[in-house]
Amino acid sequence: MLATGTVAVPILPDLTIQKKIKTFADKIIRPQTKIKEIAILSPVFTRKILMSEAIVKQWLENAVTTATKKDHVAHMSFISKKVSLQGVPGYENIGYNDWAAQTLHEFENNIIKSVHYKKLKLVTTTSTHIMFKTFETVEANDGTINAQGIEILLEKESDGEWRMVQERILPEDEARHDGLID
Fold first, then answer.
1. Number of domains in the chain
2. Which of 19, 36, 74, 148 is the residue whose CA sits 20 to 30 A from 101?
3. DSSP class of 3
4. CB neighbours of 6 closer than 8 A, spacing ≥ 6?
5. pLDDT of the chain along its 182 residues, tens only?
């Protein structure tokens, strides 16, 4: 993945145009921003990033839809049996069974009003894993709002489905540093 402060320029068939874009970015864009480096990316790497983003966006959409519909079975189908949730105050680690029991309680008792995700930062991606950070807002029907930066690791499991295997609640300073909090 690219370092924070890096802008990617895809490799183009015409090297003259590619060099002009990089020169323009180096001379004009970089001095006016916090960009530290202009990187030339291969089409394969660019395609890999776009595919990973599409997988993550679809996974987030599925999580929101199933939570909104309070469809517990469908919602839990996006969570791996080996999931680990970290960063919840008072708990070292929350596993699948506790997660499933909590979401079932929330769905059956109509506790959750809405779930939203905004901003997306890919951290790393391979053919079987995608780690990303996002900002999650969960609104309860009693008006309580829980908003926080989170880091999620998705894994493509043996059945070909992408499931969350890890979630970490980010400290506020890390979420702010990653640009998830305005």
1. 2
2. 148
3. P
4. 35, 36, 37, 38, 39
5. 444 444 454 554 555 665 666 666 666 555 555 555 555 555 555 667 778 899 999 999 999 999 999 999 999 999 999 999 988 877 788 999 999 999 999 999 999 999 999 999 999 888 899 999 999 999 999 999 999 999 999 999 999 999 999 999 999 999 999 999 98
> With left for phi above 0 and alpha for psi between -120 and 50, is residue 117 left, alpha or beta?
beta
- Same domain membership, residue 152 and residue 86: yes
Q: Indicate the pTM of the whole model.
A: 0.75
Residue 76 covered by a domain: yes
Residue 94 is classified by DSSP as B
| Strand ranges for the chain from DSSP E | 6-10, 37-41, 79-86, 112-125, 129-140, 145-156, 162-169
Distance of CA 83 to the CA centre of its chain: 16
Residue 47 lies in a domain: no
CA-based nearest residue to 62, from 77, 82, 80, 84? 77
Domain hosting 15: range is 6-41
| Backbone CA torsion sign across 71, 77, 79, 82 | positive
Place of tokens 């980010």: 170
Q: Is 83 a member of any domain?
A: yes
